[in-house]
Amino acid sequence: MDPHDPQRAARSPFKGTIAHGYPTLSLAPAVISEVLHIRAVTSALNHGLNRVRFPAPVLANSDRVG
Question: Terminus-to-terminus CA distance in the chain, angstroms?
């Protein structure tokens, strides 16, 4: 069973393959470091994943932002 099979995914409730949230979320530090330049950090706080939510599926290869 291939979870990325487009033909099988077309028969799913989503009607196509969906982007997985955690791999997408793992890109955030790299993207943020390209956009923001943080200087003179004396301490940092990691809130963890307790409040991360993926409220809706996003189709793979979608142009959806936000």
Answer: 31
Tokens matching residue 26: 């793992």
With H, G, I as helix, E, B as strand and everything else as coil, classify residue 11: coil
Using DSSP, state whether 29 is helix, strand or coil: helix
Closest alpha carbon to 54 in 41, 42, 64: 64
Comparing CA positions, the residue from 1, 4, 29 lying closest to residue 17 is: 4
- pLDDT tens across 16-64, in order? 888 878 888 888 888 888 888 888 888 877 778 888 888 888 888 777 6
User: SS3 for 22?
Assistant: helix
C-alpha span between 11 and 29 (Å, rounded): 34
Contact (CB, 8 A) for 32 and 40:
no
